[in-house]
Amino acid sequence: MRELRGIGASPGGAAGPVYRLAPPPALPPLAETVDPEAERTAVRAAVLAVAADLTRRADIALEATAAEVLRAQVMMVQDETLIDAADIAIDGGADAPHAITDVLAEHRAVFEAAGGYLAERVSDLDDLRDRLVAACLGQPMPGVPDPGHPYLLVARDLAPADTAGLQPALVLGLVTAEGGPTSHTAILARTLGIPAVVRCPGILDVADGTLTSLDGVSGVVVAGVSTEAVDTVNADRLAEIERRARSQGPGRTADGHPVALLANIGSARDLTGEVEGVGLFRTELLYLDRSDPPSHEEQVVAYRDVFAALPGRKIVVRTLDAGADKPLPFLRLADEPNPALGIRGLRVARQTPTVLTTQLAAIAAAAVATDADVWVMAPMVATAAEAAAFTESCREHGLPTAGVMIEVPAAALRASQVLRHADFLSVGTNDLSQYTFAADRMCGDLADLLDPWQPALIALLASCAAAGVEAGKPVGVCGESAADPQFALVLAGLGITSLSMAPRSIPAVRESLAAHTLDECRQIADAALAASSPQAARAAVDGVVGRQMKITVSH
Predict the structure, then answer these.
(1) What pTM was computed for the model?
(2) What is the side-by-side order of every strand in the sheet holding 220-223?
(3) Which residues are catalytic?
């Protein structure tokens, strides 16, 4: 057996034979262009074929989030600037496959240099290139293997088109050599409930068919396990899935202390199963890849669909989280040298205030038409003054409960002052990690710094929770860390009042909380806070949990 280590990206265990993603088509030698018009026609035919294939995948995607990602790819491949650039390359002597490859290589370099969200889309461009080249050459498009039985999917990285169409009954787990815990692969795997490990470079040396196991929490991958081990891991997984399917009710510790378990969604389609409410309604999906902003009426309809689905329950709406690193054409924002530190989130209102006021008016109109308990929060708030201005604007629009996201360390450090104006806080641990450790969340090489078990991040979470307790106001967590059943115990122990995650992750977190009292969670949080590293924090918490379980069994 050979043990490999990566980063756990989607919780759960899985085991089976590994099979690699089909390789991209090989680019043939440059052919002499005899008929430039025929090459231009070939490019357009390839664009149509790829757009149609991605649209079909979006239509049958199991999750709304996956469908939205695929539709964004369709917009990318149909971009007229890409087609025009390919025409210019053909006029310069390139054939269709080389023209596409050269143009997308230029786009790739620009995306990488921009960093942030655009750097994340590099793998999307690579996938589009491979699909377009395959279409030009008349070859099958690269994709997921189908050996005819369940398996673990292995790849250098996965494009959204590959991940979105995965069938959990066939693809038991994912292991990628690259990527990070906040990549598209990781997010979609969690959404689909598929255990995943990313940033595991040694996996590419494992031969197809090798029996392998993975742990999506610890990031441990073991190649060369026995058939008995495979049967045991998968039997445990099925038993856990069945047990969690029966799990219902609100989130509570063993002694009845409430910790609300809420869902992260992008639209009404993401609401699967019974949930207590929504802790993060991402509204930016309405705005993506548009040359004009959605109208007031269009927004009202989209928000009302979600509100009507959860009468009487809390729904936390995040206002538009976009800007220079998530470019929206209609915003017409200037290029910035460091998009992650530029005009994004609430800061967009500095230049185009009507985007925010129109959205708040639409949210208020949709809220009046339903019985949902609608809360609103702004992303990228850095100061108490920004929090005050946002909450005042919400109240002017008839929205009584207004809060802010804590993603900037300055806001975390001054959480008490922010709460003098805001009704609640919601910590986005993904961005808070990025800014705390000066580590781009899309840079796989820095994935260890983005580990939510980093003691410095836990200390900032503790500061926010303490401010909430002092002010008597709720403080939630809506980052990916909330979906980790063990880390949820730390958060509850710190005083966090709600956890928001992909709906499929809720049962495991509910069971974890139900197995420990609030006092035990506080002991767990103290152990994590005292640790010197993420590894030490995990080990310390494992030790405390183990001792607590022994005491429970002995009684």
Answers:
(1) 0.74
(2) 2-5, 220-223, 211-215, 13-20, 151-155, 171-176, 196-198, 7-10
(3) 184, 478
